[in-house]
Amino acid sequence: MAQTKANTLDRTDGRQSDGSVQTVPANPRVTFGHWGLAATLGGALAAFVWWGLLTGSGLIGGDIYAYFLPQKLVMAEAFASGELPLWHRLTGLGYPLLAESQAGVFYPPNQVLYRVLDVETAFHWGIVGHYAFAFLFTWRFARCQNLSQMSALLTAVIFVYGWFPARISHEWSIVAGVWFPLTLWITDSLLKRPSGWLFAALVLCLGTHLLSGHFTLAFVGQLTICLYAVLFRLFPRKSSSSTAAHPIAWRTAALPLLAVALSLGTAGVQLLPTYELKLASQRHGEHEQFDPAFGHLPPVYLTQLAASWTYWHTPEIIQSAAFRTTPGAVAADTNHVEAHFYWGLIPLGLVLASLSPSLRQRFPPGVWATWSLLSLLAVVYATGWLMPLARHLPGFGFFNGPGRYTMVAALGGGLIAGLTLDALLIRWKPASVVLLVLGIGGLNVWDTLTASRYVADAIVVPLSPLQKLDDSWVRQQMLSGDRLRHRLLAPGPNIGNFFGVSCVPQYLGLGPSVYYSEQLNPSTSAGDEEFPNTAQREALRALGVSHILTTEPIPQPHSAIELQGAWPDAVLNLVWGRGGAQCFLYRLTDCDGLIVTAQRDRPQVRVTELTNRTVAFDISLEKDSAVTLKELMYPGWQVTVDGERQVPLAADELFRTVNVPAGQHTVRWRFEPASLIWGAWCSGGFLLLTIAVSIVLPRKSKTSTSRLETSAS
After folding, report:
1. Which residues pair with 664 in a beta bridge?
2. Cα 352 to Cα 413: distance, rounded to the nearest angstrom
3. Three-state SS across 310-364?
4. Which residues, other chains included, contact 456 with Cβ-Cβ below 8 Å and sequence gap of 6+?
5. What is the pTM for the complete model shown?
6. Per the domain annotation, does 29 fall within a domain?
7. Are residue 423 and residue 483 in the same domain, yes or no?
8. pLDDT single digits (tens) 586-632
């Protein structure tokens, strides 16, 4: 009884009667009730913030309709036909959809959502669901950092609703970001209690993170957990059964690094096709167009932490892009979305308060030092200052957007704010703490969402463009007739995908390098001259362009084009925000179509099969000829003529061409990439290796743990 009284607080400075400082208890117990509260609050917040996405509204802006939804449409169509969506034939001349990765073809939630729901519902519910789980996993990781229940909930609010809403136009941000706190939680558990099943769980989660579609955030997560393991060793933690902090063994600290290595192999079914595309992409080769410093955080823009929606995120600053040329900014381009970094004003105050040495005495050992250092490293890298060196390092030079590393600092700031709040409220009654944290959390959601609305380049609108597809007159025109005779030249990249036809120009994050040549980017400028002129006309014919879509009438149209219609379009006007303005659709009267012979005549062609990875047609020829399908020739495309395997002509490096004898024949192109087969074998092999390691691991871990406990005693 005497000891109990001696350990109670008798002053508001946090000191006990014996002169020592009371700290937050190590490893606070997590109950089912805590889980239920966090899950309920996370789901409710996600539904409240994105209620429109759950009730039939649309999301437009940024890359939503220019990039993500065209991929999802093709993916859902392939699932519906019982095929794997390996190829996307509607963007440009086509590209390997699996290899481009951001479609997330093998990502488990996508495999479910896009099979059972319509495309837009699956897209929206996927976003909202990932917000809810990101909140839950962030809360759980915060609890293992010795934060109390309420402070951990506040940390989840700060991280999830401070960093992600501004990036709503980038679906990958929350889809990939949800795995960041989850893998950190498993890593922390593995370091504290090494076991085979935790190791296997970490490998599988890291591998699934890679399948989610965006490798930048996956790489950031992998790098963070490896550094976290090292800092866990350097800044020892106190266990619930120990009065002192003791370091873990280096062998234990190496387990996350081994898990990262094995996860790369388990995701081989995704990584090998992507690596194959990378070697043929704009990030490698004669048309190389890639700057890894793009999307950095200008140092002066860090003042947004204190002057966000009150100054830096005002529309005037955003539109002028003044922050791009501030002192210390690197030469590469950036934008306000990539450079967004904001905790909220109250969390900022709590983070600054943590700098007080007397307050830090109440923190659990190791946590503040770990996350202060990780956050500092992330912010320094986000500025782009280290890019001259980092661009030559594996991984760092492959991805752009160094500003995305602020995700680490966003979580670090939330954790430090939670630590500070626990230290300040250590003597408060539980009911008072609940009321205060709920108030702070509500204010912070309002604060961060207000800031993000100025930054985000996508908004929720009452009416979704996809809901108006059947009312689109352009779509009706493009779907009339043979789709292998139609290719659309449009002012918005990939927009023709919604009309079921191939279109140029194209927009890809990782695309074949030829797509960045002048040949694949024909001019749409008419000016005061006749359009298309002779050179433009030949370029359009070579690409198989049959229609031209414009937002203004062509002043002097060439005699070879004719106007098909000029009306407001139900889909395009919503996507482009053009109100009731007209769209103009022209047809090229001398278009050869997408299937031509060496003589450039127009053979009799009947399409018999057209899926995402198969094109088959019957063709009648008067004499032997090379037959060209004006779609991209890419490794993995195989061709048969009348069922017999043929060798494509190597002379045509752009289009798919094969020699066909005179008479009537069936030509069938089928996409069978070897990289997928090898990737599948790689994934299977590394899964078996992971199981083997996880079986052996517990014996070594018990030995290591017993030695640690012996040294501690």
Report:
1. 620
2. 10
3. HHHCCHHHHHHCHHHHCCCCCCCCCCCCCCCCCCCHHHHHHHHHCCCHHHHCCCC
4. 61, 62, 165, 166, 167, 168, 169, 337
5. 0.91
6. no
7. no
8. 999 888 889 999 876 678 889 999 988 999 999 999 899 999 999 99
